[in-house]
Amino acid sequence: MTNEPAMSMGLNELARMLCLDMQSNTEVEERLSRMLDTLHDQVVLLDARGVVVYINKATEHLTGYNRDEVLGSTPALWRLSESATHVERKLDIREDSRAPEHDVIRNVRKDGTVYEATVRSVPVSREDGSPSYTLLVERDVSDAAALERVQRRIAALTSHNLKTPLASMRWQLEMLRNGDMGHVSQEQQESLAEIHEGVTRMVGMVEQWYTVTNLDLGLHTLHSEKIPLENLVAEVLHELQLRIEQEEVSVRFSAHPVPFVLEADRDTVRTIVHALIFNAVKYNRANGTVDVEVLPLPNGDEYDGRSFSEDRVLLSVRDTGQGIPTGEQGRVFLERFHASNVEASYAAGAGLDLYITRALVQKLCGDIWFSSSEEGSHFVVAFPNVLQAQHA
Amino acid sequence: MLSRFLNCFKTVLVVEDDPALQKVLTTKLQKKGYKTVTASSGREVLIVVAQTCPAGIILDLMLPGQDGMSILRQLRSPEVDYNKAVVVLTNLRGTAELRTEAESLQAQYFDKAHTPIDTVINALARAV
Fold this sequence. Notes:
heterodimer; A: 392 residues; alpha+beta; Beta-Lactamase; 10 helices; 13 strands; 22% strand; B: 128 residues; alpha/beta; 5 strands; 46% helix
């Protein structure tokens, strides 16, 4: 079924609405059509009923349907999924980590082959604001999606395979230290503790490598779930208990009377919480303190001179360490940052903790800031997507 | 002491394809007084469950052939109807969906790299 008058009218009106300064409506249509035919992406124009009134050459090429077969139908013609809006997953192919990811759908060509595509839908309204047309721009991302699958698989398998022997070593060490294999002398305990610490650091480095790789390749995906933040903080503190005792630091955790629930990716939030508390413990003085607090920041209220246009929940981690030298504070969130006043005291890690922490906070559309002096440092993360928040 | 004696009547199935991890888990369980049987693939699991009806299962997610989550689904299916304690272990990252599914199948879920072995064993012991 052809729909030449509708196509002509659609493109013509579209061009007019786009305010192209042309000689005639026919010229508008021809020039716009030639322009859209040069694109590699599918461009499809739907009328107010969702019926196709225009397609460019790339649509014919990618779907295998010619213009006559498509005009008058709907995008369901080349959609694989039952639902036209079914999203297979998100594909991160953009540079700005705060920009929304592309929805990936699966299309099927006329010959039955399937390809993955991203879809952008742009409503085109009349001057009076009433909806008129919808512009669909679809891009074949099969190659990018296949590459992403390979990259994900390699990263996940490598991380898993490196951590498997480390988990075994850690558990064996725990059994030795607990006396499951017989009595252990004090000297042996100290040696085992050093080995245990080394293994724990290696696990941390593998996980940092995995996180940085995913962030750099744009593969870090978020799975939203409801997270009781205080429970997560308590869990991290429990995991760090041995380290806290070794560093001879006192950790105080103040939970708000009404628990907060975040809607966020649990692993991402956990990594953020772990990094901030671990650093506060590691870079502290002997017999120092770490104060961890979870508190609400309702829409419009201020904390540290900052306010937000939505409810947030704050994670505050304050330590009594040596602080970060003023001249170096601008580099805190950069890769491989080590403060000059602590580098000699501790075995240097990869310097990725705060780089990763900030990247992950940004992934969650949150905010992170800090203040630091010779009396210690104070890091704050403001998490969005709070399901429960009470005024103090 | 008494609980260790009582545990002697309980068998735990350890499903783990890594020999070192399998050994450390079975050793720890035996120290706690459990009898242990092992399996390293999905096919073996169903055979062992049918033969021994273990009081609890420790189940790794990354296994050759059939993955641990699909094994768990089979265990909880009406055909197998295994309704006893299952503890799922993994070293995989970014597994929020797996955790949710495991918990919906009445299984406890632990990250091997971040969980002390005592925590894993104690969690199983409480459920057995």
